[in-house]
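We were asked to recover a plausible sequence for a given structure. The inputs and outputs are reproduced exactly as logged, with field labels preserved.

PROBLEM: sequence recovery
POSITIONS: 217
GIVEN STRUCTURE:
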């Protein structure tokens, strides 16, 4: 089983970027983030114990572009993503793409198109992608997840289809630590159960602690 199954990013098209930059009525926001995971687990697949991470995001109206990286031990994971989010009444939707790349041959490239739809406390996410597989026959995958959120608590059930297979279940709590109305950092604690099919062996349960700080420019 591959150590990384390509989700939350193919770089947005040049047309999308130009549309966001050329719209004078749109407020453009730039932010950066840094963080730490006690264990980096992506879509139920463990990547590395004790991992630092960081990213840069640009938003303009519903458009967004960004990059994000994480320490995976044998080099870095570097992701590039972009897309568009919008709301219709009580519903919200998103469409975008992500390109996952790696240094030092930790893994090969993944490219995917992702979609989301949400209402109230429920969000459905889907991704359709291709894994380059180090020059061998490329592999296709589909990812589906349903997430429920309430007062900082959340639960998620997710599964893979096509050339990749397996499921995982996640539950946790996240919030922002503040001091005298100053936001210090975001934190989260999660329990993640990955089944044996997803891991290509025995099932596994992990407790993950995350810290994150965002800076607006």
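RECOVERED SEQUENCE:
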């Amino acid at each position: 089983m591959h150590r990384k199954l390509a989700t939350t990013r193919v770089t947005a098209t040049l047309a999308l970027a130009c549309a966001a930059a050329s719209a004078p009525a749109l407020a453009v926001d730039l932010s950066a983030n840094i963080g730490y995971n006690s264990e980096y687990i992506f879509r139920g697949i463990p990547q590395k114990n004790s991992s630092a991470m960081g990213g840069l995001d640009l938003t303009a109206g519903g458009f967004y572009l960004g990059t994000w990286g994480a320490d995976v031990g044998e080099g870095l994971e570097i992701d590039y993503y972009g897309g568009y989010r919008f709301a219709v009444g009580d519903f919200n939707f998103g469409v975008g793409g992500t390109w996952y790349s790696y240094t030092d041959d930790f893994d090969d490239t993944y490219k995917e198109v992702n979609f989301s739809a949400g209402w109230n406390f429920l969000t459905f996410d889907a991704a359709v992608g291709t894994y380059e597989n180090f020059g061998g026959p490329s592999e296709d995958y589909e990812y589906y997840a349903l997430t429920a959120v309430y007062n900082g608590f959340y639960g998620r059930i997710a599964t893979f289809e096509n050339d990749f297979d397996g499921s995982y279940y996640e539950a946790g709590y996240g919030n922002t630590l503040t001091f005298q109305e100053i936001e210090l950092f975001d934190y989260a604690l999660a329990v993640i159960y990955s089944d044996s099919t997803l891991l290509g062996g025995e099932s596994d349960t992990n407790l993950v602690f995350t810290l994150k700080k965002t800076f607006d420019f």
